[in-house]
Design a protein that fits this description.
Oligomer: single chain
Helix content: 55-70%
Structural class: mainly alpha
Order of helices and strands: HHHHHHHHHHHHHHHH
Strand content: under 5%
Number of helices: 16
Radius of gyration: 19 Å
Number of domains: 2
CATH architecture of the largest domain: Orthogonal Bundle
Number of strands: 0
Length: 291
């Protein structure tokens, strides 16, 4: 009988990342790309095109006339917001099937999106060179949980039931039921399978222990701090409970990587980020109408 690790690797072969979304991301990252070229590619995916138009026509932008073409929607949204929408919608559609009714997919993606938005703002404020990359890392940080919930339902229920008693760290419980694997390792394997850049794979793999990342500890530290910030504002990954024991264990290491003093994370900081997240979440208008 195949081990869980072998089953995971076999399953990951069956989870493709949408080709249209990958092409859009590639084009957005190319400074020579035009809105017309992007519109041509997005139009190949009707569901994606409809979502882009819906966001462009949302009250946030307040455009006086209805936006009916993809090209104009791209101009209104801007390339950065377009990339965020494409990533979010494509990932949700790729991994949204076969989920147990007890798994709250909307809240999962809401949490993922908010951590992505927070990571992006932290990256900008702390001078990280590619804020779009930071958004992707934050959005994807818990993607392994979705794989476990979808393909290992029995193990997932056991992990959640034991984890919510708060007697053992989730990592320890995951390793017990998943052949010594964790959700962040599974997520990084999936990102690797999708040919995402090495720094994104590493950020997913080390977002619980950023200081151990061998290549670039800054990006996973930003994801860690983003999730910490969201937790302090009451935004948890509801499917895995609202505990935060891993923050205590690695918090000082992350502060050291980012060269931050603990006093930096005061009430003023959290109020500032709550305002930033609320505005950006309204702009995206993907899974909920309000923060």
């Amino acid at each position: 009988m195949a081990s869980i690790k072998q089953r995971i690797q076999n399953i990951l072969q069956l989870v493709p990342f949408p080709a249209v979304a990958m092409e859009v991301i590639r084009l957005v990252d190319n400074p020579k790309t035009s809105a017309a070229k992007l519109g041509e590619v997005i139009s190949q995916d009707q569901a994606l095109a409809a979502k882009v138009l819906k966001v462009a026509n949302s009250p946030f932008y307040g455009f006086p006339k209805q936006i009916s073409t993809i090209n104009f929607a791209i101009v209104v949204l801007g390339f950065e917001t377009l990339k965020e929408i494409v990533l979010s919608v494509s990932l949700a559609s790729s991994l949204a099937n076969k989920l147990d009714k007890d798994f709250d997919l909307e809240k999962f993606w809401r949490h993922s999106l908010l951590v992505g938005i927070t990571t992006k703002h932290l990256a900008k404020d702390f001078g990280y060179r590619v804020s779009g990359e930071a958004f992707t890392a934050g959005l994807l940080h818990d993607i392994g949980i979705l794989v476990i919930a979808q393909y290992f339902k029995k193990e997932f229920k056991e992990i959640v039931q034991i984890g919510r008693k708060r007697e053992f760290p989730f990592e320890q419980i995951e390793r017990r039921f998943l052949d010594n694997s964790t959700h962040y390792e599974i997520g990084s394997w999936l990102a690797e399978k999708w040919n995402f850049p090495e720094q994104l794979v590493e950020a997913i793999s080390f977002h619980h222990q950023p200081h151990l990342a061998p290549r670039n500890s800054i990006l996973p530290s930003l994801v860690y701090l983003a999730e910490y910030t969201c937790a302090k504002m009451g935004i948890f990954n509801i499917n895995y409970g609202d505990h935060d024991e891993f923050f205590d264990e690695n918090f000082n290491n992350v502060l050291e990587v980012l060269k931050l003093d603990v006093n930096f994370l005061n009430d003023g900081f959290f109020e500032l980020y709550k305002a930033k997240i609320r505005t950006d979440f309204a702009k995206n208008q993907i899974f909920s109408d309000e923060l």
